[in-house]
């Protein structure tokens, strides 16, 4: 009986792996022809900040110099429970500093919900709301691309998430490679297939009418994934804009990275519990493949957890000097199957780097250290499973003051 359950689990995980691999193939080709529309949409640009005095100035400077009519957008810095000079810096640079004090409801999701209520009460109303994190940098044509998508009828838009400091350490390099992979073979593939994309926490644009109708309501540790699932439930498909680039600061140390990813996985388990079965049922009832895909995506934390547990049990069973209880699925497959599966997965990363035009030999060398980074998701997810009821939001410290010109110069070299 135990072995039958293990075989069934491996078949399920193999299905997930093959499913994602097939989807990824549709991200190899990129369509570049886009219709350009004249600037007409107005934007409220929200910057989520908690004690970000070291980095927020660079982003504000960046946002004030966007290639978009200045009368069509305003910048609002959400100074969420700040005890430093974040608000003073925002005010001194001529943007709105909106200060929130709430020691009970902590976290980015609650801060956004509060800010939207403040925004709806203001005299000026905007066509759309854009959200960034204080450590970000953004390409100067970002709002131009958002305007194009809004004019074409899209209601929720996700920009291309890149890393502004991939050269800082092997950890940031691993983040950079992972983001290139996700943008190309997770996000672009779904866009090419006409499926829903998933929000990434920053570089997001929302039609104001939709936000007012839905409400924010995303206050988990992964508010971006939560809002994505709410959209798909309502038949609203977030769309990726591959040309609208946002550069996000990533933790330099492995310890800080593990803490950040633990929070993400704890939040993923929460979202999976709330949305997997409703989306799966709706996809079956409506014969809706997009909702089926979202349901599978929502349980990625569970599939990682189960994969780790299943692999560990098989290895322990093989090490213990006794008759084996569990059988690996590869025992029923040709001898080359395991090697082919590993090779196909491994080749995806250098393929993506080549497709994205990455030329740095040093970055390709980090493919080796990234193996450890990817494997580290397993114990992190395992620990997150047993601590998933921890709703304590943890802040990632940001200290890398980089200007957009520096980021673009490094990418060009």
Q: How is this structure best summarized?
A:
The protein is α/β, with parallel strands linked by helices.
Strand elements, count: 8
Portion in strands = 5-15%
The CATH superfamily of the domain at 43-165 and 195-250 appears as Spore Coat Polysaccharide Biosynthesis Protein SpsA, Chain A
Question: Strands of the largest sheet, in order across it?
Answer: 3-2-1-4-7-6-8-5
Rg, rounded, reads 22 Å
Oligomer: single chain
Order of helices and strands: HEHEHEHEEHEHEHHEHHHHHH
Q: Mean pLDDT, nearest integer?
A: 91
Under CATH at level 1, the class of the domain at 43-165 and 195-250 stands as Alpha Beta
> How does CATH name the architecture of the domain at 43-165 and 195-250?
Alpha-Beta Complex
- N-to-C CA distance: 58 Å
Shape, principal axes of CA atoms: globular
Question: What is the helix content?
Answer: 40-55%
Low-confidence stretches: none
CATH topology of the domain at 43-165 and 195-250: Spore Coat Polysaccharide Biosynthesis Protein SpsA, Chain A
Q: Could you characterize the architecture of this molecule?
A:
The protein is α/β, with parallel strands linked by helices. The protein has a domain at 43-165 and 195-250: Spore Coat Polysaccharide Biosynthesis Protein SpsA, Chain A (Alpha-Beta Complex), CATH 3.90.550. Helix content is 54%, strand content 12%. It contains 14 helices and 8 strands. It has helices at residues 2-25, 56-64, 86-92, 108-120, 142-151, 170-192, 208-214, 223-233, 254-286, 289-298, 300-319, 337-355, 361-386, 404-412, and strands spanning 43-49, 73-80, 96-100, 128-133, 137-138, 156-163, 204-207, 239-248. Helix 6 crosses helix 13 (361-386) and helix 8 (223-233) runs antiparallel to helix 10 (289-298).
């Amino acid at each position: 009986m135990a072995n039958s359950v293990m075989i069934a689990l491996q078949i399920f995980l193999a299905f997930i792996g093959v499913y994602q691999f097939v989807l990824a193939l549709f991200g190899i080709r990129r369509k570049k022809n886009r219709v350009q529309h004249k600037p007409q949409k107005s934007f409220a640009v929200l910057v989520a900040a908690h004690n970000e005095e070291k980095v927020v100035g660079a982003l504000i400077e960046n946002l004030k110099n966007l290639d978009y009519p200045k009368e069509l957008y305003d910048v609002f810095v959400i100074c969420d429970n700040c005890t430093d000079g974040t608000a003073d810096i925002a005010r001194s640079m001529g943007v709105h500093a909106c200060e929130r004090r709430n020691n009970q409801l902590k976290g980015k999701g609650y801060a956004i919900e509060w800010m939207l209520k403040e925004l709806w009460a203001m005299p000026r109303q905007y066509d759309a709301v854009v959200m960034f994190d204080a450590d970000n940098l953004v390409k100067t044509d970002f709002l131009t691309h958002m305007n194009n998508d809004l004019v074409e009828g899209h209601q929720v838009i996700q920009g291309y998430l890149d890393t502004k400091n991939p050269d800082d350490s092997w950890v940031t390099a691993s983040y950079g490679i992972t983001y290139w992979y996700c943008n190309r073979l997770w996000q672009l593939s779904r866009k090419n297939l006409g499926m829903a994309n998933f929000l990434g926490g920053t570089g997001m644009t929302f039609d104001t009418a939709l936000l007012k109708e839905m409400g924010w309501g995303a206050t988990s540790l992964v508010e971006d994934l939560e809002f994505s699932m709410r959209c798909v439930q309502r038949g609203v498909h977030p769309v990726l804009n591959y040309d609208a680039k946002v550069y996000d600061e990533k933790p330099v140390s492995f310890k800080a990275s593990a803490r950040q990813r633990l929070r993400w996985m704890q939040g993923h388990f929460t979202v999976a519990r709330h949305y997997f079965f409703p989306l799966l049922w709706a996809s079956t009832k409506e014969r809706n493949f997009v909702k089926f895909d979202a349901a599978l995506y929502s349980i990625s934390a569970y599939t990682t957890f189960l994969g780790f547990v299943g692999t560990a049990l098989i290895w322990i069973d093989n090490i213990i000097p006794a008759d084996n209880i569990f059988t690996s699925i590869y025992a029923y497959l040709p001898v080359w199957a395991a090697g082919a599966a590993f090779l196909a997965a491994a080749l995806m990363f250098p393929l993506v780097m080549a497709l994205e035009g990455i030329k740095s030999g040093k970055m390709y060398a980090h493919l080796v250290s990234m193996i450890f980074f990817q494997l580290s998701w397993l114990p992190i997810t395992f620990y997150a499973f047993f601590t998933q009821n921890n709703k304590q939001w943890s802040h990632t410290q940001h200290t890398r003051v980089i200007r957009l010109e520096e980021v673009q110069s490094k990418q060009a070299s």
